[in-house]
Amino acid sequence: MKLIILQEKLKEGLKITRRVSTKSLSLPILENVLLETEKSFLKLSTTNLEIGINWWSLAKIEKEGKITIPTQVLSDFISFLPNKQIQLEKKDLILNIECDNYKTQ
Q1: C-alpha distances in angstroms, 6 versus 20, 27, 42, 60, 86?
Q2: DSSP 8-state code for residue 84
């Protein structure tokens, strides 16, 4: 998976989907958000097994794929980035995030 999206859009999507993801001691996967690319869209999905939220946004998709990331960690990091383009790239089971002079895995 490899895509480019504006920080503002990704931050908005994480803010919306994070409302559903809850801390679950028995099912830690429920604390995650699913990032999935389809054609020219990025889809964020979360659930708490009672309700689920899917959020879509246009993005520049270079390679399709999907990965789950802890919602809180991703949301906090994206909030600190400047309002510029963010590049998300999945290599094996690691998500690389780049924006301006900021990089993380």
Answers
A1: 23, 31, 11, 10, 6
A2: S
Element holding 33 (H helix, E strand): strand 32-38
Selection from 56, 15, 18 nearest residue 37 by Cα: 56
Give the residue among 52, 57, 53 at the shortest CA–CA distance from 10.
57
**pLDDT tens digits, 54-64:** 999 999 999 99
pTM of the model: 0.91
Minimal CA–CA distance to 42: which of 61, 17, 29? 61
Query: Could you tell me the domains of the chain?
Result: 2-104 (3.10.150.10)
